[in-house]
């Protein structure tokens, strides 16, 4: 999954010369984690986070403009950036959201909650798709448990033989987004383990 699949738009932005009190009203009024600061060409030149706003207010600069409180430089991602890279950018830079730019122009924003929803939905959707294929294969007799972690699938249950294990793995690999596939024949596991 990529930034373009989960980004939010339109993005509420501010300019460098926006009154800090107006920017704070936008942050608090809409529950945003941060506001991208853009220039006249919609290029991201900074970001105003809740922390930036609190620091400015605490130091008595709330009567100023956004430029005195915003953070620079700004970490951005492109529409084609994959979820793991966005997670890394947010964690490495201690950000709750990251602007998405294309050819330097702001096109959206991705918040941590967007990533969490995407990650949960991705794994649940993959798991449901695997169950569906396995049920089609077995004639709706659910005999396997499926676990999806980071797009890797583990299928546990009783298999007729190694050929059936290969078939289960092969049909699972046909699902877009599936990483590694592991089939564990629980009948082959000694009962003392």
From TrEMBL:
<feature type="domain" description="CBS">
    <location>
        <begin position="7"/>
        <end position="63"/>
    </location>
</feature>
<dbReference type="Pfam" id="PF00571">
    <property type="entry name" value="CBS"/>
</dbReference>
<dbReference type="InterPro" id="IPR000644">
    <property type="entry name" value="CBS_dom"/>
</dbReference>
<dbReference type="InterPro" id="IPR046342">
    <property type="entry name" value="CBS_dom_sf"/>
</dbReference>
<feature type="domain" description="BON">
    <location>
        <begin position="122"/>
        <end position="191"/>
    </location>
</feature>
<protein>
    <submittedName>
        <fullName>CBS domain-containing protein</fullName>
    </submittedName>
</protein>
<dbReference type="InterPro" id="IPR051257">
    <property type="entry name" value="Diverse_CBS-Domain"/>
</dbReference>
<dbReference type="InterPro" id="IPR007055">
    <property type="entry name" value="BON_dom"/>
</dbReference>
<feature type="domain" description="CBS">
    <location>
        <begin position="70"/>
        <end position="126"/>
    </location>
</feature>
<keyword id="KW-0129">CBS domain</keyword>
């Amino acid at each position: 999954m990529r930034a373009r699949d989960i980004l939010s738009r339109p993005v509420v932005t501010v300019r460098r010369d926006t009154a800090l009190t107006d920017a704070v009203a936008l942050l608090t009024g809409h529950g945003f984690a941060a506001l991208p600061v853009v220039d006249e060409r919609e290029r991201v030149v900074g970001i105003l986070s809740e922390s930036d706003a609190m620091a400015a207010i605490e130091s008595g600069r709330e009567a100023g403009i956004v430029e005195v409180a915003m953070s620079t430089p700004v970490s951005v991602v492109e529409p084609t950036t994959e979820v793991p890279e966005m997670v890394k950018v947010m964690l490495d830079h201690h950000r709750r959201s990251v602007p998405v730019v294309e050819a330097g122009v702001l096109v959206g924003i991705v918040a941590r909650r967007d990533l969490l929803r995407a990650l949960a939905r991705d794994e649940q959707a993959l798991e449901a798709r695997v169950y569906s294929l396995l049920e089609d294969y077995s004639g709706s007799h659910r005999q396997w448990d499926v676990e999806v972690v980071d797009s890797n699938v583990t299928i546990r249950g009783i298999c007729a033989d190694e050929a059936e294990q290969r078939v289960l793995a092969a049909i699972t690999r046909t699902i877009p987004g599936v990483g590694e596939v592991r089939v564990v024949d629980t009948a082959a596991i000694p009962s003392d383990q």
